[in-house]
Amino acid sequence: MFSKLRQLFGPPPVIRPPAIPFGERVYAVGDIHGRLDLFENLIDAIEADDSDRSPARTTIVLLGDLIDRGPDSAGVVARAREWAEQRPVDIIQGNHEEMLLAAREHVDTMRSFLKFGGRETIQSYGVDPDLSDDMAELQIRMNAAIPQADVDFLTGFQKMVRIGDYVFVHAGVRPNTPLDHQMGSDCRWIREPFLSYRGDFGGFVVHGHTITEEPDVCTNRIGIDTGAVRHGTLTAIGLQGTQRWFIQARETTTEPITFATA
Q1: What Å distances lie between residue 162 and 10, 204, 258, CA to CA?
Q2: Would you say 232 and 206 are in contact if contact means Cβ atoms under 8 Å apart?
């Protein structure tokens, strides 16, 4: 009887693991949040890891939130732009970049921007936010201090990057919505229902935005915001074929840590 049922319904479908196209390699970096020290260490570790592996077309993806909260957002932006001039680097816009760009245009956004980490960002550009309670005046000083080259750089960040079976995005995507129809606000801000969804997003999602102490590995997504400011750990994931591995820069050790994942 059981053999007849097996013949009727057939074997269970084989679930193919997500893959990066042959001959390519990708490193995605989680939320940096002004931690230039960790970012520099992670860059060195990624470059060394890439050199130690077989030749491949390598792409770096920065998952957004380069700025805010940490002490040197200006330095992170400058270093990211320099790295992008040296090798292929795709950068996704996070909700913190969105807030900075909005605060440049709208005075009523300034208070929220400062409250959620913008204070440290404008300080890194040489503006003391404590010198004025007038948001309009502070906006003028901020806009004068941030170079137009940095503004143009941040404005050019992407909503989403797709490579092979992988989807790289800052916060996540809305379930049951085609990837081509995802709203930028969801890509930069969403948590639920994205985080608890276990179905198919249309691609395997690699994201930041939601902090976990270690990478959040699920069947349909991996979160790699490990709290560069909160926990002192900046994480990258390496991807080649169906292989995955993590590289971390931690403030508690001078040597980056590399470990594999299933």
Answers
A1: 33, 10, 24
A2: no
Helices 36-52 and 73-86, packing angle to 10 deg = 20
- Interhelix angle 95-105/135-145, nearest 10 degrees: 110
Beta bridge partners of 230: none
Locate 118 and state its tokens. 């913008």
Residue 5 has a pLDDT of 47
Dmax over CA atoms of the chain, in Å, equals 82
Structure token digits, residue 242: 């169906």
Closest to 134 in 3D by CA, of 114, 163, 155: 114
Helix, strand and coil in the chain, % to nearest 5: 40, 20, 40
Instruction: Give the single-character DSSP code of 170.
Output: S
> Which of the residues in the chain have pLDDT under 70?
1-15, 261-262
How far, in Å, CA of 92 to CA of 170, rounded? 6
Q: CA 214, CA 156: separation in Å to the nearest integer?
A: 30
Whether the bond into 88 is cis, omega within 30 of 0:
no
CA distances from 165 to 59, 79, 91, 196 (A): 15, 29, 18, 20
Tokens describing residue 132: 């004025």
- How far is it, in rounded angstroms, from Cα 97 to Cα 229? 17
Nearest to 57 by CA among 111, 28, 20: 20
pTM of the predicted protein model = 0.93
What 112-117 contacts at long range (C-beta under 8 Å, 24+ apart), as own/partner pairs, is: 116/68, 117/33, 117/34, 117/67, 117/68, 117/69
The three-point CA angle 168-85-118 to 5° equals 60
What is the pLDDT, as a whole number, of residue 2? 46
pLDDT of residue 191: 98
